[in-house]
Design goal:
Blueprint: H1 6-10, E1 16-22, H2 36-53, E2 57-61, H3 75-91, E3 97-100, H4 106-116, E4 120-123, E5 129-132, E6 135-138, H5 141-150, E7 157-161, E8 167-169, H6 175-185, E9 190-193, H7 204-214, E10 219-221, H8 230-233, E11 239-242, H9 258-271
Length: 273
Amino acid sequence: MAVATPWQQLFETPTALIGVLHLPPLPGSPRWGGDMEAVKRWALADAAAYIGGGAAGLVLENFGDGPFFAGAVPAETVAAMAVIAEAVVSAANGLPVGINVLRNDGAAALAIAAASAASFVRVNVLSGAMVTDQGLIQGRAAELMRLKRLLNINDVGIFADVLVKHAYPLAAQPIAEAVEDTLQRAGADAVIISGVATGSAPSMADLEAARAAAHDAPVLIGSGCNNQNAADMTPLVDGVIVASSLKCDGQLFNPVDLQRVRQLRQALNGYSH
């Protein structure tokens, strides 16, 4: 009998909708407002909107903390995210919750997942080297795979961006080759394909190349999915990670709009492969 993959264990819905919880600034960040309870309330309200609209999972990220560190984040960021992650996991009632520590602190994400019982982490640069506004960010697969074993969280999935948004590869690499490296050499459980920036959709050519290179491994859209392009993109992928198009009035820093979530979920239901 075949053993279920981490993706299959977490998501049964075709074309899973994973909603991003964009946290307000956390302690220690430049725009920190001084009220952790307010941050928690914001996160839980957005989580409730995603869940009420039919999302299959959530991913928590320190979106308000920019400018981001290229590597390890401070202890206060990890502590704050762990507190909020525990509350979100509890409120999610069994829905998978993921952790993304921007810009690329996969070790902190795994530690938070271990402490909060989160189900997966998102890692922006697991393989290769990317030039970003934070400088050069290099893949951390060797470190993260060993840490995962050390923490005894082998069931926590690692979902990895390929040629991540807001970045350029240090050396040109075809996306198909990057997908293969991320899955086969870096050990990712799923790959994420994005456009050039937050809210920007990936090209159909990139999605088609990624789908072919990934074979049976899960391929996710990491930015830019909405009601208008769902019909074209979703037959090629296993899930979508969405935030921008689901905010009230489509504004990035607004709360999540339950009706927008519901509408996208209905669109995905109509076009699932």
